[in-house]
Amino acid sequence: MTEMTMIEAIRTALARAMDDDPDVILMGEDVGINGGVFRATDGLIQRFGASRVRDTPLSETAIAGVAVGAAVQGLRPVAEIQFMGFLYPAIDQLANHAARFRNRTRGRLTCPMVLRAPYGGGIGAPEHHSESMEAMLAHIPGLRVVSPSSPAKAYGLLLAAIRDPDPVVFLEPKRLYRAGSETVTDDGAALPLDTAFRLREGADLTIVGWGAMLSEVNEAADQLAGEGISAEVIDLATLKPYDRAMVRASVEKTGRCVIVHEAPLTAGFGAEIAADLAEHSLTSLLAPVHRVTGYDTVMPYPRLEAHYMPSTERILKAARAVMEFQ
Amino acid sequence: MPDPNVEMIRYLDADGTPVQDLPDFARQRDTLVDLYAAMVRTRAFDAKAVALQRTGRLGTYGSSLGQEAIGIGVASVMLAEDVFIPSFREHGAQMMRGVSMEELFLYWGGDERGNDFAAPLARRDFPVCVPVGSQFPQAAGVALALVQKGARGVAVAVAGDGATSKGDFYEAMNMVGVWQLPAVFVINNNQWAISLRRQDQTAAETLAQKSVAAGIPGVVVDGNDVIAVRQVTAQALSRARAGPGGTLIECVTYRLGDHTTSDDASRYREDEEVSPHWRQEPVLRLRNHLVAAHGWSKDEEEALLRESNDSVDKAAEVYLATQPDRPRAMFEHMFAQMPTELAQQAGDVADD
Ligand SMILES: Cc1ncc(C[n+]2csc(CCOP(=O)(O)OP(=O)(O)O)c2C)c(N)n1
Ligand SMILES: [Mg+2]
């Protein structure tokens, strides 16, 4: 048991996976001697050698495509895209290939790869370095999309992603990389994919979030508790496929739901959750479902970034609105 | 055009001594002094930007230390009708195109207004391109527009050695070749893409050689020799203007500093590896030449340094005194007409 930051937990999980399975290889820009620009792979090239920790040329299409080919032929590649903003060329390989191999060969060929990418804002990074485009990826049939909200989740979910027999996009909320630490046991135990986590039990409303936004969500839940409002907090963790049963059951219990994400509002992943509740839990709802999200704007540069990021205040406002709804 | 596999074009050696007859422009003291002053100012700007970042007053910044000759050489022969499509490391070239230091500071300080270039020369230039290499296809498109509209301008794009590994680069060069577009692709080969060495980026002997498959000429030039960069660019521009199409120019230089202020190059390279390159750097090289061939004096040097530092300091003060934009500005430039739903979202955000 050790105190770890999220970046340390990710590194620990990568090392554990490589120790356990010689087919696990890492690749990406600057993942070798530099240890990754966020140091997720620090020390791994020294430990596992340059044939298993591969610095790639600057080519996102090839990083994803090589991972696809290698995965189909029995390796377990864990490829890194340096920032989510540079992942778009890789979507061709993900959508047209990684996500379809199993289906189009009727199970003869499969693609057990992981594509890791830091995402999200709030750290004053340059343009193209702060977006949250998880909904684009979640829209691709055949991909799993996972985003951890804490060091322990990162450890367990990354191990699960690497061991999963299908392609997984692992989105790391970089605002949390060093934002705090918690006890992580490097015991090789994976956390389940496709399962949400109830971070806090509550009776009055359900707040659903994932990744870095859980910090603000938890803060809001604390404040609401002070006002006598008991919020249940759900960390979705796996966005695709997400734990619909847990979200429905929670909302059917509380009757109210606020969904929080950093990504833009329109066609964001919150829309899927709200639609699911409308279809399956409508009669339990005591108030309309509210979304607290980023705006339908280009992610602003750092000087205005704080005005874009969903704040605790905005979450509180939405929570009070659903509570006061008559 | 010379063989991209073997020859590197150079006029001044590391000491500033000519190794072949200089082109006409390079015999004019005034022209050389202008080029020198632009490089000195670029270096002063870089130093200030890094200092501002280190004290929390600027965002992540990539210095062009040691690579000043490329942007200055290239931009010094571009005309008003040309369009510049830069990477994030060509501050000197942007300034030569008329982008103000205040605008550059604003951009790197995290303010979109830094991209709204006021200078007429830069009015049609692109803002810096952060997704590496993705500016090349756009440059081909710029060249296409120039041709279709009957303009005589040339699209000039600059990116790093790492960018040559992107499909974007090959695809764009191929289009330039097929359509004979007036585009000049300049590679700042500073030997590093963050921690990746040039030889680990590609097994090709030169980057210029990559032009062969696209059927356009490729040239290797000493990127620390501003005379060579300017001369080769001038030739490529006139070739593009005259009609037969594009050129790839590989400028060989060295990244003397960290990749950006977020980087720590000591993780992947030794100081001993870097130090010999300080002897090759472009500012010192041209100064040596100016002193030897044109009697550049100590007084002139000191006056230039003072002037450069003053102008940079003044620009920094203006930048630091500039209040952030109104938060609602993030909504106001999404569409020509703000859609109703966006206006509703904007209502969430304070207007001051
Ligand atoms: C498509 C893309 N991938 C990754 C990055 C992150 N990144 C920024 S600069 C850089 C290296 C660029 O190297 P090079 O092209 O040689 O330019 P230099 O920085 O050396 O000027 C990387 C990997 C990016 N900006 N864009
Ligand atoms: Mg480079």
UniProtKB/TrEMBL annotation, chain A:
InterPro entries: THDP-binding, Transketo_C/PFOR_II, Transketolase-like_Pyr-bd, Transketolase_C. Residues 4-179 form the Transketolase-like pyrimidine-binding domain. SMART domains: Transket_pyr. Its cofactor is thiamine diphosphate. Pfam families: Transket_pyr, Transketolase_C. Keywords: Oxidoreductase, Thiamine pyrophosphate. The keyword Oxidoreductase applies. The keyword Oxidoreductase applies. This is Alpha-ketoacid dehydrogenase subunit beta. It comes from Thalassovita aquimarina. The lineage of its organism: Bacteria, Pseudomonadati, Pseudomonadota, Alphaproteobacteria, Rhodobacterales.
TrEMBL record, chain B:
This is Pyruvate dehydrogenase E1 component subunit alpha. The lineage of its organism: Bacteria, Pseudomonadati, Pseudomonadota, Alphaproteobacteria, Rhodobacterales. Keywords: Oxidoreductase, Pyruvate, Thiamine pyrophosphate. The keyword Transcription does not apply. The pyruvate dehydrogenase complex catalyzes the overall conversion of pyruvate to acetyl-CoA and CO(2). It contains multiple copies of three enzymatic components: pyruvate dehydrogenase (E1), dihydrolipoamide acetyltransferase (E2) and lipoamide dehydrogenase (E3). PANTHER family: 2-OXOISOVALERATE DEHYDROGENASE SUBUNIT ALPHA, MITOCHONDRIAL. Its cofactor is thiamine diphosphate. Heterodimer of an alpha and a beta chain. InterPro entries: Alpha-ketoacid_DH_E1_comp (IPR050771), DH_E1 (IPR001017), PdhA/BkdA (IPR017596), THDP-binding (IPR029061). Its EC number is 1.2.4.1.
